Amino acid sequence: MKIDVKEQDENSMTFIVRDAEVPFVNAIRRIAMMKVPKLAIEDVFIVKNDSAMFDEVLAHRLGLTPLVSDAESIEGLVLPEDCDCDSEKGEYCPRCSVSFSLRETGPKTVYSKDLKSCGDSKIKPVYDTIPLLKLKENQDVDLEAVAKLGIGKDHAKWVPTTVCAYK
Q1: Bond preceding residue 125 cis, omega within 30 of 0
Q2: 98, β-bridge pairs
Q3: Are the beta carbons of 44 and 145 closer than 8 angstroms?
Q4: Three-state secondary structure call for residue 158
């Protein structure tokens, strides 16, 4: 088997695998999508949401917002099932989760850059310009969010790849 890296930058990699059986390459693809841990928002505690967006939709949108999950930034975090805390209650535990806050007042469009890490500043959304919701005059949003490590097999928000294909 031979692997030639064609392109690589901070967020992506393109490579060619030669002299390998298709099932082997497919196994690499499936492992990359389903078994590699990634950080994603799991629990959202909304204190106030005056916007037109339902709380559930906002929580889902936050869960799908990609967070920096490189090895350096998540070093020391463990999967919730490997932690001795009671993570099923959705509470913050510094061993297995990262806490975020979002407090904004309209009129404005709230972007992913407005989501602030309460502890480790290395953990933040990958892109600053993802629109989360629009606030009109006198509308507020105030929430706390807890991000946890997970794997893509459990939910799409933990899939660390966007395009993973072979031909």
Answers
A1: no
A2: 147
A3: yes
A4: helix
Contact 143, 46 (CB under 8 A): yes
Give the homologous superfamily in CATH for domain 37-150: DNA-directed RNA polymerase, insert domain (2.170.120.12)
Residue 90 token pair: 């959705």
Q: Alpha helix locations (H) across 42-116?
A: 55-63
The series of mean pLDDT values per 10 residues for the chain, 167 residues long, is 89 85 88 89 96 97 89 82 76 84 97 89 89 97 94 90 69
Ranges for all domains in the chain classified under CATH 2.170.120.12: 37-150
What is the three-class DSSP state of 159?
coil
DSSP 156: G
Match 């993570």 to its residue by tokens: 87
Whether this model's pTM surpasses 0.70: yes
